[in-house]
Each structure stands twice: as structure tokens, then as C-alpha cells.
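FYI - complex with phosphoenolpyruvate, inputs then prediction.
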Amino acid sequence: MRRPLVAGNWKLNGSRAENARLLEGVLAGLGPESPCEAVVCPPFVYLDQVRSLLEGSAIALGAQNLSAEASGAFTGEVSAAMLRDMGCRYVIVGHSERRALYGETDELVARKFLAAHSEGLSPVLCVGESLQERQDGITNDVILRQVNAVLERVDIQMLSSSLVAYEPVWAIGTGQTATTGQAQDVHAYIRSIVSAHDAKIAAELRILYGGSVKGSNARDLFAMDDIDGGLIGGASLDPADFVAICKSAHP
Ligand code: PEP
């Protein structure tokens, strides 16, 4: 049985006051036992604040990015060990905004994935096609390339403590969600790619959907066989919506 996970990607949002307000609402709404595994990923500078606000709760801490390097002369970077030190358990790797806006290549994403594992963090590997790629009918080719770029460079055993997030780029922050059928098809395809390497790991791998998930559409998406929770952007900044999404995810 795969325990669903819902992760909030706060992106470049928040302040000390806003974070406290947001988490107060989320913690009150979820209660002591979250129905799913819940994670929040604030900006780096707020990790410590959020860690203390989450103390004693069922919500885990994650980061939005990390350096592929362990230490040294890499100005502005944050390493896996630092994230571990701050109490992170998860880290998003290869988000489409990082691929598109910061030039992250498949190879760099794979190196970040390895760096996360080297410190015992669980990477959430994001993959997804652009609108043009979907219209060109090459969604599966893109997904295969992105997933294999990592699988070819890592030990398949690492997948047993990793997650994959399918995030069609055209659905991120646009209000346009993939249909449950479109999402399920790609999720099943991702599982089949991993299954070609190891069927047991594939069966246990949690694959999240991301792209304009809201309280109003989460239940239908999470009801699909291969959708094991969500990576949530905009709606994770609204406590009521994030709580409603978490409550829509149960085994
Ligand atoms: C995301 O950024 O990972 C995301 C899914 O954003 P949104 O929910 O806002 O589409």
C-alpha cells in the first residue's frame, strides 16, 4: 500500500508573519494526525522558522532545490547536508521552473538527485511535458527521457526512497488541470518505465501529480490508481485549500 503524500511548494512566497499565519491554519485544519503524509517546502531562508513551527506536528519539512555540490566555492548555493542539518526530509529536484528559468539540464537534475540521496534526503523528481510537446504527441518521449536521465545515472535502489512528480508544464500555475485520464495515463507510464528496471520498486513508488491541484479537484485526481498524492503550488498558500487537498488523499 502506497501512503499518499501531499507536498506544498511555496515557491518564492512568504514572510515570517505570513508563514506563521499559514501554518497556524494548516495545523489547526489538519489536526494531530494528518490523513496523508504532508510536507511543506518553504524558501531556504525560512526553513529554520518553519521547522520550529512544525515541531511536534505530523507535517514534514522539504526544500525546493539544492546544489549538486557538497561544499566549496559555489556562491549562493545550498547543499544537501545543509538541508539535512535544517531538518529537511524531502527536496524537490528538477522542477520545471528550474529547468526552464535556470537552465537545469537532465544531467544536472540527476546530479542533484544523487546529492540528495548522499545525505539521506528523499528527492521528489519532477518531470513533465510542455504544451507544445503534448500537442506534438511526444509526451511519453519527454517523460521517458527525463526519467531515464536519472535512472541511467543512479542505483535503482535509490528509487525506493524517492518520489516522482508528474507536472505537465501547461498545467502549472495556469488553472488548467490535466484530466484525470491524462494524468493517470502518464503516471502509469512512469511506473512502467521504473518497472522495466525493478518491478517491486515501481509498485511501491509514490508518483505525485502537480498542476493546478485545488481542494475542488484533488479527490478525483487522487482516486486514480497510479496517483499517490500531489505537489501543490498556488493552493498550498491557502490553508483551507491545502488542508482540503490533504484530506482528499487517503489510501
Ligand atoms: C508546482 O509548482 O509544482 C505546481 C504544481 O504549481 P500549481 O499548483 O500552482 O500549478
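The first helix runs from residue 16 to 30. Residues 9, 167, 172-173, 210-213, 231-235 surround phosphoenolpyruvate (CB under 6 Å).
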